[in-house]
Amino acid sequence: MIDKMIVKLRRYDKLDPEEEAALLGAVTEIKKFARGTVLVRRQTPTRACEVVVSGLVHRYRDLSDGRRQSMELSIPGDFVDLHSFTMKEIDHDIACLTQCQVAIVPHDRLEQITTQFPHLGRVLWLSTMIDAAIHREWIVSLGARSAVQRLAHLFCEMAVRLESVGLADSDGYRFPITQNALSELLGMSMVHVNRTVKELRERELVVFREQQVRIQSWEGLVRLADFDPFYLGMHRRPR
Amino acid sequence: MIDKMIVKLRRYDKLDPEEEAALLGAVTEIKKFARGTVLVRRQTPTRACEVVVSGLVHRYRDLSDGRRQSMELSIPGDFVDLHSFTMKEIDHDIACLTQCQVAIVPHDRLEQITTQFPHLGRVLWLSTMIDAAIHREWIVSLGARSAVQRLAHLFCEMAVRLESVGLADSDGYRFPITQNALSELLGMSMVHVNRTVKELRERELVVFREQQVRIQSWEGLVRLADFDPFYLGMHRRPR
DNA sequence: CGGCGTGTTGATCTACTTCAATGATTGTGG
DNA sequence: CCACAATCATTGAAGTAGATCAACACGCCG
Q1: Which of A59, A187, A231 shows the shortest C-beta gap to B91?
Q2: What fold is seen in the domain B147-232?
Q3: Fewest CB within a 10 Å sphere: which of A231, B52, B182, B188?
């Protein structure tokens, strides 16, 4: 059920079979949610973390002027809210961008297995550090990259992340997100997302259509976006 | 020497005297650096973490087109690079924005004390989670807030963070940073930083002059910036 | 069938950038 | 102690990336 997470963590560091079994055993149930469902509401204490099994999840903040900014996009295999394990309450909402399956991991079980397997705790810590590295990369995108570069960078990031859990191949990947949701991720207007998608298509770098990203020129995309996958921490890459 | 860090961590969670002693004892030396010195260079393995004792430190990325974007601003009491403890190599540079004193904490000592005091390890993890929460808030600023709001928000954040280590009072704080460095933090041009500083002064919210931030109207500033200090995690606030 | 979400495009507007020039301050070598 | 360069703040003028407004096409669902 959460095998994608195991696959992902193995990219970060070697896992013992007992560690893997402990993680698998920490899941109490798998829930299904409709698109738009709010999984965690801000400043509400939580007692469990969630792992995305299928679908897309994002964390976002709604500002008083009505604008919404996404801060994180979680894909299958990601711990959505490992933050809540140490922070208990968070400062924003988390919701489903598509229909989702989510595995529930109660905090007390997590506490138990990280105490029993300190190394596993270290790997989970590393996993949250990589989330932070992704945040920093988004800061760079939002602060210093143009709209085309930003979109190109996101397409690159998603390619590498989805590939690491077997959801992308060299040709591209399924990416069931609306242009409106993209605009909230990228900090730009929906209209401009539309034009930017068009520009990438006309430059023959990426075609994004019908929830599908097809990459025409990986090299061109990487060059445009100034993309370096180092921050994603997958140094134990197979291939 | 790193007493400001202890003060800060106490805001996050209760610390035992032995835990505090262990942390203090983990420091091997205090070094002094000139403004501009690069403390950690990208993709270079490190064997120690640093704690800021005095001065300002930032992590940043230089893009191929010459732009520089800061991702994090560390103040006295902050672990600059706890990331390196789990990640070993990082994806960007870290440098001094002012003359700095920095305490060195070798990884092996950190490993030792987090194994010996698991709860301390949890608090340090929490501390990196709060760094991540700050990253997310910056994402919101860069993605969805206007230039004035962004600057106002930074002044608010620094007020709360500096106050938590005794470096700010209700009147304001010392903030020895150039407008150029501010522009790299805020993802806008230096010229526009200058005009924005002026605007905040004319609106009688903040006067930033001669490395000093004087807050005229905290309420006005908070309203303008949409600032909510919740993300800074200081729920054990004294006052 | 009508309405809503989504994508698409044109026209206009504006928040910010870039370019350029000028003081003020500080450090530095003769 | 002064001349000089270097850094930093400041302001005006012109340019532009992207926002906003508005209209329409399409598919989907109740």
Answers
A1: A231
A2: Arc Repressor Mutant, subunit A (1.10.10)
A3: B188
